[in-house]
Amino acid sequence: xxxxxxxxxxxxxxxxxxxxxxxxxxxxxxxxxxxxxxxxxxxxxxxxxxxxxxxxxxxxxxxxxxxxxxxxxxxxxxxxxxxxxxxxxxxxxxxxxxxxxxxxxxxxxxxxxxxxxxxx
Length: 120
Known about the structure:
By secondary structure, this protein is mainly alpha-helical. It is built from 5 helices and 4 strands; from the N terminus they run H-E-E-H-H-E-H-H-E. The chain folds into 2 domains: 2-33, no CATH class; 65-118, no CATH class. It has helices at 2-5, 23-33, 65-72, 90-107, 109-114; strands at 11-13, 20-22, 75-76, 117-118. The protein has a two-stranded antiparallel ribbon. It has a two-stranded parallel ribbon with strand order 3-4. Strand 1 and strand 2 (20-22) form a beta hairpin. Helix 3 (65-72) packs across helix 4. It is elongated.
């Protein structure tokens, strides 16, 4: 597949937004945001005038976007139904929050909300 990178213009499909991104732009985003896992959101949504100013394109609120996102990620902890971070005991939340932040960073907000993380 390396020979395909020499063909220009080249594009890569963003795994989280399913939109095509210029290959050079995508490579720089991957190198910056996910150098070990090579998976991150490549298509960065541009803000629109229809938003309130505090809300980003992915629906999270600036400044608290990570906290809002990790609260929405469904988790399988072995009780037969998905739970969210707020349903856990405070010690459990403190333990799990960094793991969910890392997951959301690499998966992207759209995919993180769609998938259930298993802690079994």
